[in-house]
Amino acid sequence: MFRKEPESLLDEATKETLEKLTQLLQENETIQNYQQIEGKAQNHAHLNTLIEQIKIKQKEAVAFNHYGKPEAEKVAIRESEQLTREFNEHIVVTSYQDSLIEADDLLQQLVGTIQDELVKEIEEKLTELS
Length: 130
Known about the structure:
Layout: H1 12-27, H2 29-42, H3 45-66, H4 70-89, H5 91-129
Helix pairs in contact: 2-5, 3-4
């Protein structure tokens, strides 16, 4: 009936370190900026309206294609493309994309550093065992 949580394979020290790392990331200015802009983007009324309008125009284009109305389909596609451009050029969307890139770069750098340290430790342990 109820699923049991899977047992963690991490030891307590690793869990504590992971919790500290998570806390540090949550306090990081780049991550906080990303989360703030993400919230603005998700709750932006005009952007949500644009998304709905784009979906409507895309559905119209498909329907017009299905019923053999190529001119109406072209108009719906053009309108959808114009709305998509407006969406993509909106300052909140561009800010979101920029902050996403910065946050991703930070996380990729962190993951790379962790991987390098783990590889170094594994190599040292293997050398000790040889």
